[in-house]
Amino acid sequence: MPPPRRSPKPQERRRDPERTRALILAAAAAEFAAHGFAGARTSAIAERAGVNQQLIWYYFDSKDGLYRALAEVWQRRQRELVPPGTPLPEQLRRYALEALDNPDGVRLFAWAGLEYTGTDVDHDGRAERMRPTVEEIRERVGPEVDPACLTVMLTAAAMATTTLPHVIESVCGVDPRTPEFARHYADQVATVARLLGLADHP
Amino acid sequence: MPPPRRSPKPQERRRDPERTRALILAAAAAEFAAHGFAGARTSAIAERAGVNQQLIWYYFDSKDGLYRALAEVWQRRQRELVPPGTPLPEQLRRYALEALDNPDGVRLFAWAGLEYTGTDVDHDGRAERMRPTVEEIRERVGPEVDPACLTVMLTAAAMATTTLPHVIESVCGVDPRTPEFARHYADQVATVARLLGLADHP
DNA sequence: GCTCTAATCAAGTAGACACTTGATAACGTG
DNA sequence: CACGTTATCAAGTGTCTACTTGATTAGAGC
């Protein structure tokens, strides 16, 4: 008689804290992105991750702690999105395309805006990250334009496929979630940026 | 012995269904705007309105019904916001200033975007309301620009003081909620619209 | 192998929440 | 003033939800 394999799912039982943490974080990103902080359910996160609910508290202390941990992950990705030296219209195009490549991240970022109460995990980081963009804009526009405000406008515009799907559906008459539209819209954002004189001059 | 006044608060007890309805709607606007649909609490709405909780179900059937009733109110206001014939930059300036005059409405509208699932109470209404704007833009820009997309971008840009306060805080270094900044930002939106050639031509 | 720790799990719990129920008091109408 | 209707109220109810507790097991170090 061979030694009996006690567990029916030996692979599933193997421990791997890093993997578990990552699974929970990924599931949390999807849930928070889909429903926002208040709407997200910890039970749904655990189920989506395929782990025991309690592990959420084991690794992240609270729903809030999980949310904050997520913000850090997202922050790291943002830093790597646009290599320095990329022309502005192309920067904006890529930023708009994030709606395709990382829709959860963009939604998370949008939720954070509405749920913002005055303290931001990433305040200083973002300020530093966007400074070059503001300065580049300053050099390319006239004195009547406040480059910081224009940066904000362009950021908002680039995120619109995520933040204003209802407007897009009404105004453009198409489903804003299709890749075709996202690409078209991203091109349009770049086009408008060029019209504003934000392209490289020869 | 004079006839005793039985109720200590006779004025409060006076019935006024219309007033009650309005009180609930106003309180709901504030709560939903502050926390979104999932985050809003019916108990908080009743308390803010100063009415018995049950009246929410008496008048609106459900939390969802209350939310929908609110959407209709908001919709009506939108129609009256910008009289036809207003030049585009001025339209956008006023739209951006809504963040001051009707912050709850703007927030409600922004929440609706993130919570959008494909069905919209005001789909047709908004489409019709925004058509003239799209057509006006079409006449003023070159063929490389999709006027519907530009309309979306400008809408998103005009709402940024509400949707992206965290970005504004980082990039502009000011509190996005102050009236001074809101006015400055609204002027900037109008300025950029003029730069894009959206002003009246002589 | 033994033991200690760290990871996983199952079964709660207390409170919050949307919504009901059934009674009561103001109002309109004859 | 009687009487039916309508608005208001107080006190639930079942369910959901974030979080606890306490036991169990996999793996690391000796």
Automatic annotation (TrEMBL), chains A, B:
The protein's name: Regulatory TetR family protein
Keywords assigned by UniProt, alphabetized: DNA-binding
Boundaries of every HTH tetR-type domain copy: 18-78
Coiled coil (residue ranges): none
PANTHER family assigned: HTH-TYPE TRANSCRIPTIONAL REPRESSOR SCO4008, TRANSCRIPTIONAL REPRESSOR
Ranges of the DNA-binding region feature: 41-60
Keyword NADP part of the UniProt annotation: no
One of the protein's GO biological processes: regulation of DNA-templated transcription
GO MF, one example: DNA binding
